[in-house]
Amino acid sequence: MRVSQSEQIPLRRVKSWLNHPQSPKNPPSLHLLTAHHQIILLKLQQRQLTLAGRAKLRERVAVEHSLSHIGRWQGDQARYVGSRKNLFDLRRTAVVHNLHVLAKIFTHTTEHSATSS
Fold it and tell me: How far apart, in Å, are the Cα atoms of 72 and each of 44, 83, 102?
């Protein structure tokens, strides 16, 4: 596979895209991939071709799913001023997520044992 060369887009055209009045029916979108992003996408596509690669990607999906829960709970903006407090908040949210996962496992296990008895 070959990484495509970047296309030169005139600056005035990009500015006109960005200044376009947004409408719900036709919102402007500008999606540019850098060569670095293309290389990562090519590597991910190549991993999909092997059994071991697909297994690794399944592990990655589980981690990203957990991170999306944490991101949804925390939101997009920092809650505190300073990195120490925000790191503490991130870790606190991760602990709460882990407790949710454990509670789900525990209730599933107890429900399963109650129905089999």
Answer: 25, 19, 19
Q: Please give the structure tokens belonging to residue 4.
A: 């495509």
Q: What count of other Cβ atoms lies within 10 Å of the Cβ of residue 62? A: 9
Provide the token pair at 51.
Answer: 């059994």
Q: Can you tell me the distance from the alpha carbon of 88 to that of 94, in angstroms, rounded to the nearest whole number?
A: 10
Evaluate whether 33 touches 9 at the Cβ level (below 8 Å).
no
Give me the count of residues in the chain: 117
Q: What is the pTM of this model?
A: 0.51
Q: Would you state the pLDDT for residue 117? A: 60
**Six token digits for residue 76:** 């997009």
Task: Give 76's DSSP letter.
Answer: S
pLDDT of the residue at 87: 94
Phi/psi at 95 (nearest 5 deg)? Answer: -65, -45
The closest alpha carbon to 94, from 76, 61, 109, 72, belongs to 72
